[in-house]
Design goal:
Blueprint lengths: L3 E6 L5 H15 L2 E8 L4 H20 L4 E7 L2 H12 L3 E5 L5 H14 L7 E4 L17 E5 L3 H4 L3 H11 L2 E8 L7 H28 L4 E7 L2 H11 L4 E7 L11 H9 L4 E6 L7 H4 L5
Parallel strand pairs: 1-2, 1-4, 2-3, 4-5, 6-7, 6-9, 7-8, 9-10
Antiparallel strand pairs: 5-10
């Protein structure tokens, strides 16, 4: 499932936070890594610096016998990234959650705000605090995966990837449903609403739980009350998870983003990698549509 992994790179991309994870995944999935350098327009000094930057990292891949491909493209980073994904059949995009990372910003903001594109591929977003440049030789592990889930169909979009990752990495999976309290609590009504929400959430998670267990994956589930994003982040930190995996459902409208509100907040505040998958995935995106995105 992760035969080809793309790493998007700009000069401001803290690649040292990404590389330990992609190499970790590449070893277990026998993945080919694609290092894509992107510059908005030709600039010799910038391009030479970025090319040298990429070459430094490919030397490490050669030492570790990890197959790779490099490319350098000029243009809109968001558009070129998505075009590259479809051209080469990329299974996973990895980049850094970093406000000064121009590629991350354009992929996560520009496409969504200008067109409302729903990604048909997963994104692995890695916060800069996950690994420091001085610890680049340290190997990460993904042994505990937290999967927050809400509405059935949208929530299940990420499950195939979790099944593949947990099975190959020998990871345990915890399914989490956060039951949001009513906005205007009325004692009796609130209690009934919470009870119903918890029962529905528990039944839903148990179904997914049984499926994962039938596939040989150590899975469990939990339903807790609270504000979704805050509760997810707190639960992940308290229980020392290595990865948060979330599906998100896009709905058209002014101000909508590639990710739902809860997912966006989790990505913004997370101190561990976040894997996201959009539902429903947009198929057959045309080159003409991509080129309609303007920075």
């Amino acid at each position: 499932m992760l035969e080809k992994i793309l790493i998007t790179i700009g000069l401001s991309t803290p690649v040292w936070t990404i590389f330990p994870y992609v190499q970790y995944l590449a070893r277990y999935f026998s993945s080919e890594l694609h290092l894509l350098g992107i510059s908005t327009r030709p600039q010799q000094v910038w391009d030479n610096s970025l090319t040298g930057y990429i070459n430094n990292w490919t030397a490490q891949l050669k030492e570790n016998n990890i197959p790779f491909k490099t490319d350098f493209i000029h243009g809109n980073p968001a558009v070129e990234t998505v075009k590259y994904v479809y051209k080469w059949g990329i299974n996973l995009i990895t980049t850094s959650i970093f406000k000064n990372n121009e590629i991350t910003c354009t992929i996560l903001t520009n496409i969504a705000q200008k067109m409302g594109i729903r990604a048909s591929f997963p994104l692995l977003l890695i916060p800069p605090g996950s690994f420091k440049e001085s610890n680049v030789l340290t190997r990460p592990t993904i042994k505990k995966i937290l999967v927050p889930m809400d509405c059935p169909e949208a929530g299940e979009a990420v499950i195939p990837y979790i099944k593949a990752m947990a099975g190959r990495l020998n990871s345990s999976v915890t399914l989490l449903h956060v039951s949001r309290p009513p906005p205007r609590p009325v004692p009796v009504v609130q209690s009934e609403v919470v009870s119903i929400s918890q029962a529905v959430g528990k039944e839903y998670l148990q179904k997914i739980n049984r499926y994962l267990q039938s596939e040989g994956i150590a899975a469990n589930s939990e339903v807790i009350d609270g504000l979704p994003a805050k509760t997810i982040l707190k639960y992940a930190k308290q229980n020392k998870f290595d990865l948060i995996a979330m599906s998100t459902q896009y709905s058209a409208g002014v101000g909508d983003r590639l990710f739902g509100n809860t997912t966006s907040k989790v990505i913004e505040k997370a101190d561990i990698p976040v894997l996201t998958m959009s539902y429903p995935a947009l198929k057959g995106l045309s080159t003409e549509a991509l080129e309609g995105v303007i920075l």
